[in-house]
Amino acid sequence: MTINGRREKSINxxxxxxxxxxxxxxxxxxxxxxxxxxxxFDLHSLEKPKNKIETLKGTDVAEDLRDxxxxxxxxxxxxxxxxxxxxxxxxxxxxxxxxxxxREAND
Amino acid sequence: xxxxYFDTSAYVKIYSQEAGTEVADSLFKLAEDERTKIVMSxxxxxxxxxxxxxxxxxxxxxxxxxxxIFATILRRMIAYAENPxxxxxxxxxxxxxxxxxxxxxxxxxxxxxxxxxLATAYAxxxxxxxxxxxxxxxxxxxxxxGMTIIDITSHADTNPLxxxxxx
Lengths: 107, 167
Prior knowledge:
Number of helices of chain B: 8
Oligomer: heterodimer
Strand order of the largest sheet of chain B: 3-2-1-4-6-5
Order of helices and strands of chain B: EHHEHHEHHEHEEH
Structural class of chain A: mainly alpha
Shape of chain B: globular
Strand content of chain B: 15-25%
Number of strands of chain B: 6
Protein backbone atom coordinates (compact mmCIF):
# COMPACT_ATOMS: atom_id res chain seq x y z
CA MET A 1 0.00 0.00 0.00
CA THR A 2 2.78 2.31 0.94
CA ILE A 3 4.56 1.60 -2.31
CA ASN A 4 1.41 2.13 -4.31
CA GLY A 5 0.74 5.27 -2.38
CA ARG A 6 4.15 6.60 -3.21
CA ARG A 7 3.75 5.68 -6.86
CA GLU A 8 0.45 7.45 -7.02
CA LYS A 9 1.97 10.52 -5.42
CA SER A 10 4.86 10.37 -7.83
CA ILE A 11 2.53 10.20 -10.82
CA ASN A 12 0.57 13.17 -9.53
CA UNK A 13 3.70 15.23 -9.13
CA UNK A 14 4.76 14.33 -12.64
CA UNK A 15 1.39 15.32 -14.11
CA UNK A 16 1.42 18.57 -12.20
CA UNK A 17 4.90 19.30 -13.43
CA UNK A 18 3.86 18.68 -17.01
CA UNK A 19 0.78 20.86 -16.54
CA UNK A 20 2.85 23.73 -15.16
CA UNK A 21 5.46 23.22 -17.88
CA UNK A 22 2.67 23.29 -20.46
CA UNK A 23 1.35 26.56 -19.10
CA UNK A 24 4.84 28.06 -19.14
CA UNK A 25 5.36 27.00 -22.75
CA UNK A 26 1.98 28.37 -23.80
CA UNK A 27 2.76 31.64 -22.08
CA UNK A 28 6.17 31.83 -23.70
CA UNK A 29 4.98 30.96 -27.17
CA UNK A 30 1.50 32.39 -27.04
CA UNK A 31 2.13 35.91 -25.85
CA UNK A 32 3.83 38.32 -28.22
CA UNK A 33 6.76 40.20 -26.76
CA UNK A 34 5.52 43.28 -25.00
CA UNK A 35 1.86 42.43 -25.53
CA UNK A 36 0.99 42.75 -21.87
CA UNK A 37 2.59 46.18 -21.70
CA UNK A 38 0.90 47.51 -24.83
CA UNK A 39 4.25 48.22 -26.43
CA UNK A 40 4.47 49.21 -30.06
CA PHE A 41 5.07 46.53 -32.65
CA ASP A 42 6.93 46.69 -35.88
CA LEU A 43 4.81 45.25 -38.63
CA HIS A 44 7.38 45.67 -41.35
CA SER A 45 7.80 41.92 -41.37
CA LEU A 46 4.20 41.64 -42.55
CA GLU A 47 3.97 41.82 -46.28
CA LYS A 48 1.32 44.14 -47.61
CA PRO A 49 -0.72 42.70 -50.50
CA LYS A 50 1.04 43.47 -53.77
CA ASN A 51 -2.15 43.85 -55.75
CA LYS A 52 -4.34 46.87 -55.12
CA ILE A 53 -7.24 46.24 -52.74
CA GLU A 54 -10.38 47.13 -54.62
CA THR A 55 -13.24 48.92 -52.94
CA LEU A 56 -16.56 47.21 -53.51
CA LYS A 57 -18.64 49.03 -56.05
CA GLY A 58 -21.50 50.71 -54.29
CA THR A 59 -24.19 49.23 -56.48
CA ASP A 60 -22.86 45.70 -55.82
CA VAL A 61 -22.93 46.26 -52.06
CA ALA A 62 -26.43 47.72 -52.24
CA GLU A 63 -27.63 44.80 -54.33
CA ASP A 64 -26.09 42.27 -51.93
CA LEU A 65 -27.68 43.99 -48.94
CA ARG A 66 -31.09 44.14 -50.61
CA ASP A 67 -30.77 40.46 -51.45
CA UNK A 68 -29.77 39.70 -47.86
CA UNK A 69 -32.79 41.62 -46.55
CA UNK A 70 -35.09 39.76 -48.93
CA UNK A 71 -33.75 36.35 -47.92
CA UNK A 72 -34.08 37.24 -44.24
CA UNK A 73 -37.62 38.51 -44.77
CA UNK A 74 -36.67 42.01 -43.61
CA UNK A 75 -38.98 44.76 -44.79
CA UNK A 76 -36.67 47.72 -45.43
CA UNK A 77 -39.57 50.15 -45.14
CA UNK A 78 -39.60 49.41 -41.39
CA UNK A 79 -36.33 51.30 -40.96
CA UNK A 80 -36.49 53.90 -38.21
CA UNK A 81 -33.28 55.33 -36.75
CA UNK A 82 -34.92 57.10 -33.79
CA UNK A 83 -36.80 54.00 -32.65
CA UNK A 84 -33.68 51.88 -33.19
CA UNK A 85 -31.65 54.19 -30.97
CA UNK A 86 -34.37 54.15 -28.32
CA UNK A 87 -34.53 50.34 -28.25
CA UNK A 88 -30.75 49.84 -28.17
CA UNK A 89 -30.35 52.45 -25.44
CA UNK A 90 -32.42 50.40 -22.99
CA UNK A 91 -30.59 47.09 -23.46
CA UNK A 92 -28.57 45.51 -20.61
CA UNK A 93 -25.37 45.81 -22.67
CA UNK A 94 -24.43 47.89 -25.69
CA UNK A 95 -24.09 46.53 -29.22
CA UNK A 96 -20.43 47.40 -29.04
CA UNK A 97 -19.96 45.22 -25.94
CA UNK A 98 -21.91 42.43 -27.60
CA UNK A 99 -19.49 42.40 -30.52
CA UNK A 100 -16.44 42.36 -28.25
CA UNK A 101 -17.90 39.57 -26.10
CA UNK A 102 -18.55 37.46 -29.18
CA ARG A 103 -15.01 37.97 -30.44
CA GLU A 104 -13.61 36.96 -27.06
CA ALA A 105 -15.79 33.85 -27.07
CA ASN A 106 -14.44 32.96 -30.52
CA ASP A 107 -10.84 33.67 -29.52
CA UNK B 1 -7.12 62.93 -47.28
CA UNK B 2 -6.79 60.95 -44.05
CA UNK B 3 -8.29 57.46 -44.23
CA UNK B 4 -9.94 56.22 -41.05
CA TYR B 5 -10.83 52.59 -40.51
CA PHE B 6 -13.95 51.88 -38.47
CA ASP B 7 -13.91 48.60 -36.59
CA THR B 8 -17.40 47.18 -36.05
CA SER B 9 -17.15 47.90 -32.30
CA ALA B 10 -16.93 51.60 -33.17
CA TYR B 11 -19.28 51.60 -36.17
CA VAL B 12 -22.31 50.25 -34.27
CA LYS B 13 -22.22 53.32 -32.05
CA ILE B 14 -24.02 55.32 -34.72
CA TYR B 15 -27.10 53.16 -34.06
CA SER B 16 -27.25 53.62 -30.30
CA GLN B 17 -26.58 56.43 -27.87
CA GLU B 18 -23.59 55.31 -25.82
CA ALA B 19 -20.02 56.30 -25.03
CA GLY B 20 -18.34 57.21 -28.31
CA THR B 21 -21.52 57.91 -30.28
CA GLU B 22 -20.84 61.64 -30.54
CA VAL B 23 -17.35 61.00 -31.90
CA ALA B 24 -18.67 58.45 -34.41
CA ASP B 25 -21.31 60.92 -35.58
CA SER B 26 -18.70 63.70 -35.85
CA LEU B 27 -16.38 61.53 -37.94
CA PHE B 28 -19.20 60.55 -40.30
CA LYS B 29 -20.15 64.21 -40.63
CA LEU B 30 -16.53 65.10 -41.41
CA ALA B 31 -16.50 62.33 -44.00
CA GLU B 32 -19.70 63.68 -45.58
CA ASP B 33 -17.94 67.05 -45.79
CA GLU B 34 -15.06 65.25 -47.57
CA ARG B 35 -12.60 66.04 -44.76
CA THR B 36 -11.81 62.36 -44.33
CA LYS B 37 -12.58 58.97 -45.81
CA ILE B 38 -14.08 56.16 -43.75
CA VAL B 39 -13.09 52.61 -44.61
CA MET B 40 -14.83 49.46 -43.39
CA SER B 41 -14.76 45.75 -44.11
CA UNK B 42 -17.98 44.34 -45.50
CA UNK B 43 -17.61 41.84 -42.63
CA UNK B 44 -18.94 44.58 -40.32
CA UNK B 45 -22.41 43.99 -41.76
CA UNK B 46 -22.38 40.36 -40.63
CA UNK B 47 -20.96 41.18 -37.21
CA UNK B 48 -23.61 43.84 -36.61
CA UNK B 49 -26.47 41.61 -37.74
CA UNK B 50 -25.11 38.74 -35.61
CA UNK B 51 -24.96 40.96 -32.50
CA UNK B 52 -28.63 41.94 -32.94
CA UNK B 53 -29.55 38.31 -33.58
CA UNK B 54 -27.90 37.21 -30.31
CA UNK B 55 -29.76 39.87 -28.35
CA UNK B 56 -32.97 38.65 -29.94
CA UNK B 57 -32.24 35.01 -29.03
CA UNK B 58 -31.60 36.04 -25.42
CA UNK B 59 -34.96 37.79 -25.35
CA UNK B 60 -33.51 41.30 -24.97
CA UNK B 61 -35.07 42.34 -28.28
CA UNK B 62 -38.48 41.15 -29.52
CA UNK B 63 -38.89 39.88 -33.09
CA UNK B 64 -40.62 43.04 -34.46
CA UNK B 65 -37.90 45.19 -32.85
CA UNK B 66 -35.19 42.97 -34.33
CA UNK B 67 -36.72 43.29 -37.80
CA UNK B 68 -36.94 47.07 -37.48
CA ILE B 69 -33.31 47.32 -36.32
CA PHE B 70 -32.17 45.02 -39.17
CA ALA B 71 -34.08 47.24 -41.60
CA THR B 72 -32.52 50.40 -40.15
CA ILE B 73 -28.98 49.02 -40.35
CA LEU B 74 -29.42 47.66 -43.87
CA ARG B 75 -31.19 50.78 -45.15
CA ARG B 76 -28.38 52.98 -43.81
CA MET B 77 -25.71 50.83 -45.44
CA ILE B 78 -27.61 50.62 -48.74
CA ALA B 79 -27.93 54.42 -48.72
CA TYR B 80 -24.16 54.77 -48.22
CA ALA B 81 -23.48 52.21 -50.94
CA GLU B 82 -25.79 53.82 -53.49
CA ASN B 83 -24.46 57.32 -52.97
CA PRO B 84 -21.35 57.86 -55.11
CA UNK B 85 -20.27 60.63 -52.72
CA UNK B 86 -20.87 58.50 -49.64
CA UNK B 87 -18.31 58.77 -46.86
CA UNK B 88 -17.71 55.01 -46.62
CA UNK B 89 -15.56 52.66 -48.68
CA UNK B 90 -16.64 49.05 -48.19
CA UNK B 91 -13.76 46.61 -48.63
CA UNK B 92 -14.37 43.00 -49.67
CA UNK B 93 -12.70 40.01 -48.04
CA UNK B 94 -10.09 39.12 -50.63
CA UNK B 95 -7.57 36.31 -50.60
CA UNK B 96 -4.71 38.76 -50.00
CA UNK B 97 -6.51 40.25 -46.98
CA UNK B 98 -7.09 36.76 -45.60
CA UNK B 99 -3.39 35.95 -46.02
CA UNK B 100 -2.35 39.14 -44.25
CA UNK B 101 -4.98 38.45 -41.57
CA UNK B 102 -3.47 35.02 -40.99
CA UNK B 103 -0.02 36.59 -40.57
CA UNK B 104 -1.44 39.03 -38.01
CA UNK B 105 -3.01 36.17 -36.02
CA UNK B 106 0.31 34.34 -35.92
CA UNK B 107 2.26 37.44 -34.96
CA UNK B 108 -0.10 39.05 -32.45
CA UNK B 109 -2.38 36.21 -31.34
CA UNK B 110 -5.55 38.22 -31.82
CA UNK B 111 -8.94 36.79 -32.80
CA UNK B 112 -9.83 36.07 -36.43
CA UNK B 113 -12.30 38.96 -36.42
CA UNK B 114 -9.77 41.43 -35.01
CA UNK B 115 -7.11 40.33 -37.46
CA UNK B 116 -9.48 40.63 -40.42
CA UNK B 117 -10.24 44.24 -39.52
CA LEU B 118 -6.58 45.06 -38.80
CA ALA B 119 -5.50 43.45 -42.09
CA THR B 120 -8.14 45.36 -44.06
CA ALA B 121 -7.10 48.65 -42.47
CA TYR B 122 -3.40 47.96 -42.96
CA ALA B 123 -3.80 46.80 -46.56
CA UNK B 124 -5.88 49.84 -47.51
CA UNK B 125 -3.30 52.15 -45.89
CA UNK B 126 -5.56 53.73 -43.31
CA UNK B 127 -3.83 56.17 -40.98
CA UNK B 128 -6.17 55.46 -38.05
CA UNK B 129 -7.94 52.39 -36.75
CA UNK B 130 -10.92 53.30 -34.58
CA UNK B 131 -12.36 50.75 -32.21
CA UNK B 132 -13.79 50.22 -28.74
CA UNK B 133 -11.86 47.15 -27.71
CA UNK B 134 -9.61 47.43 -24.66
CA UNK B 135 -8.15 43.96 -25.11
CA UNK B 136 -7.16 44.64 -28.71
CA UNK B 137 -5.55 47.98 -27.80
CA UNK B 138 -3.68 46.33 -24.94
CA UNK B 139 -2.37 43.65 -27.28
CA UNK B 140 -1.49 45.78 -30.29
CA UNK B 141 -0.63 49.04 -28.55
CA UNK B 142 -1.35 52.53 -29.82
CA UNK B 143 0.58 52.23 -33.04
CA UNK B 144 0.74 49.47 -35.62
CA UNK B 145 3.49 50.33 -38.05
CA GLY B 146 2.36 53.91 -38.49
CA MET B 147 -1.36 53.23 -38.13
CA THR B 148 -2.69 54.87 -34.97
CA ILE B 149 -5.00 52.69 -32.90
CA ILE B 150 -7.71 54.87 -31.37
CA ASP B 151 -10.21 54.10 -28.63
CA ILE B 152 -13.38 55.89 -29.69
CA THR B 153 -14.40 56.42 -26.05
CA SER B 154 -11.10 58.08 -25.09
CA HIS B 155 -11.05 61.86 -25.45
CA ALA B 156 -7.27 61.76 -25.17
CA ASP B 157 -7.28 59.63 -28.33
CA THR B 158 -10.09 61.24 -30.31
CA ASN B 159 -9.58 64.96 -29.60
CA PRO B 160 -6.27 65.24 -31.53
CA LEU B 161 -7.83 63.34 -34.46
CA UNK B 162 -10.97 65.49 -34.58
CA UNK B 163 -8.85 68.62 -34.23
CA UNK B 164 -6.58 67.60 -37.11
CA UNK B 165 -9.57 66.85 -39.38
CA UNK B 166 -11.43 70.03 -38.48
CA UNK B 167 -8.67 72.37 -39.70
